[in-house]
Give the backbone structure.
Amino acid sequence: MEKNMTALVSCFARGYHYKNNKYWIFKDNLADQILTKEEYEKIANSMVKGIKFFNPNFEGSEEEALRWIVDNQLSPSVLGRSIFCEKSLFEAIKIGCREYLIFAAGYDTFAYRYHLNNLEIFEIDKKDMLEDKIRRLDNKNIDYSKVNFLECDFTNKNWINNIINSKYKKDLVSFSSLLGISYYLEKEEFKKMLKDISCLICNGSSIVFDYPTYEDSKETKINEKLASGANEKMKAKYSYQEIENILEENDLLIYEHLNNEEMTKTYFAKYNLLNPNNKIIAPKGVNYCLAIKNKK
């Protein structure tokens, strides 16, 4: 499979959602620019050819097949975690957040959709991922001069030093997004990552992440198979109590937590009301968490 396939498919899902709707759960008007036309079409064609894998009983056109796959399989968790993250970020900015750390940034486009002078942005990912992203931004003449790109491999025990030695200022209130990360790290690796970040950030800073639960659904099982096919095997699942315990051990308290039903009700309801024939439901088996550093 192509390198960074999971990141490419997530980008495709955001781009498709924007291009094919008049009202959005999450509005990403740059996602399809990150992908080349050939990549967009290749992913779309690949999904259509696999419709029987996603839905053995599907009957309809290729366009309808693609819409079904995106709305039922690709978009729900991607759109959910994205809108949950950005909504939480803007709330944090209102009360003094001045630094945004995007862990495993992939093809995230926040820094290029919003130009906030009072927010220092750090995109953190593996070297090859960042180099590929910068190449794509250059090809589309998208300005990234105010973004700090930091190379990090989260399986390397000293990865945190790359942030410590950057422009990052520990005494400023920060917001960290860890979207899509918990799936691909062993439990001990994810625990250590949260511990390292907690030691890095100051009191009042926030961390947002999504995580897989033990409550499997058809959608999450298919996502596991897709990830495995892309050589990105999902490695861990968590209960709410496990997450709460891990956070508390590291001076982090849960401020907001949503399961699939709460996500659908909170962020998908208006879209579904306006799109009764193409509803999007958050998948069972994925939860979303916002935690605050609260060291006493």
Notes: The radius of gyration is 19 Å. The mean pLDDT is 92.
